[in-house]
């Protein structure tokens, strides 16, 4: 198969949701369709097995949270599907944000009873900032939930989307009879049998056909006709271009647990979802069909095998092919590197591959050379944009609790920050180190990992910060900036890359500072135009 065909074959996407909406269940059913796993429950089981063999994963197991972002790939109808799993727990949101830089589209899972939840809002906001194409899957239709139209309204209002249903439920909960597939124009009757993998559908081009009354009953048939007419009047027709440029979002209904409505979702997905996209770098637009390799690190996974303590850097291939044992330029260090055992991911396994294509993710064994955002090329000096740091929500001083182990502590902190577990700020005034995280849970993760992986001990002290703002002076030599630096000295720090950061202690002081020093721009993310 030619290079272009390989690209066209690939669909790389992420599934995002608030915890418990059904992301894991949906992922598992998708894998079943690809024949990638044989039994239901395999995805979850796999998580537990891993956790038993790795210290860090033990935290995950104990807390029942999916910490790891893993990659699951399978073939379905000749398409190579790469699913980038994303942790739903809010304390790992930053991990999910970074993963979203490596997907070409997303599926959002929403619980029919709970509707749009907090994490869904945050994650969809990030997708919208980047115009990532979104398909919405409303899950758990076998349970009583909100009215379909109310839910569609809620999705539009809370998520700021422009939806159009591509399927429509017939009844719900106890009365759930099935789904009318607007995209394919057929009916799928719900039997409640989760073992049924291939769903039988009944073609129904014209829902006014009286046969519908015989199949789902007169009352349900009339209701469906009314609902579809209403939907037709209210929502725009599905427009693939609008979906691809992020201005329209198709919606499917189903029940992942019952494997119901999942095939419809997948069949539509492979037809409409984008193939690996061109990507803007700081230097130029890189086309996915360029022959030379470019790729970037979006995740570093530590300590998969406790015996080796090495790390796995996840690289998204943007252009060209990634080949085993071929030298590539690690742009940041300006060093050539060769990889004798790059991993590809298939179903829930990883294996060594000789060649990977745009859209694919390769896992590279790493002993500490990689950082999030690093690029690999065949010689070109090129950096990809779009892996910004966001202002953390929590801040604490980190102290060394074992003076004999200060080297281990600073190495550990360094490496954990490179992995993107948290952000380090060093105060300008006295060099004290501050760890910023998205959730309080990360402090425990850091403490645990420093002890178990680096043999170092730390304690924390509270440090009250409202927000970290990246500082962009109009002119570093102007008096206003000099005064800002002098007056705010106590609140200034450097991030890991040496960028200047203002740690505002309250919303009020942030506003006052902005008013007083208008030429000093303060940004909530580390990347800005
Ligand atoms: P995640 O946290 O988003 O990955 O959610 P899970 O896939 O782990 O699902 C959370 C819970 O919802 C589990 O107990 C699932 O069995 C259940 N669940 C998932 N899909 C459905 C569904 O379609 N119907 C019902 N009734 N329960 C579901």
Automatic annotation (TrEMBL):
Gene3D superfamilies: P-loop containing nucleotide triphosphate hydrolases, Peptide chain release factor 3, domain III. Its main location: cytoplasm. Residues 8-277 form the Tr-type G domain. One of its GO terms (biological process) is regulation of translational termination. GTP binds at residues 17-24, 85-89, 139-142. It holds the Pfam family EF-G_D2. CDD domains: RF3. The keyword Transferase does not apply. Keywords: Cytoplasm, GTP-binding, Nucleotide-binding, Protein biosynthesis. GO terms for cellular component: cytosol. Belongs to the TRAFAC class translation factor GTPase superfamily. Classic translation factor GTPase family. PrfC subfamily. HAMAP family: Rel_fac_3. NCBIfam families: prfC (TIGR00503), PRK00741.1 (NF001964), small_GTP (TIGR00231). Increases the formation of ribosomal termination complexes and stimulates activities of RF-1 and RF-2. It binds guanine nucleotides and has strong preference for UGA stop codons. It may interact directly with the ribosome. The stimulation of RF-1 and RF-2 is significantly reduced by GTP and GDP, but not by GMP. This is Peptide chain release factor 3. It comes from Saonia flava. The gene is prfC.
